[in-house]
Amino acid sequence: MAKKKATKKKAPARKASKKEVLVVGSKTKLALKGSGKTTFNVSSDALDALNDLVYQAVEQAQKRCAANGRKTIRPYDILA
Which of 30, 32, 48, 75 has the fewest beta carbons closer than 10 A? Predict the structure, then answer.
């Protein structure tokens, strides 16, 4: 009788993210925690919320740029 090869167990499937992460997690967490007398804890979904804000800012900048007949996004497109 032939022996069966041991099969590797697959890692659990990760939840598929609908958007690519645009913020650097470790650096953003450090910035959110702050320094000095008061430091803050950062929840696990805070980076997701910040990433959503970045996507919104990008979309607004693209719309403003297109509305002005340009193809180059400028700083005031982002800050508006």
Answer: 75
Rounded distance, CA 18 to CA 48, Å?
11
Both tokens assigned to 34: 């702050």
For residue 73, tell me if it sits in a domain.
yes
Is residue 50 included in any domain, yes or no? yes
- Report how far Cα 55 is from the mean position of its chain's Cα atoms: 8
pTM across the whole model: 0.68
* Average per-residue pLDDT for the chain: 85
User: How many CB atoms are closer than 10 A to CB 80?
Assistant: 10
Whether 56 is covered by a domain: the verdict is: yes
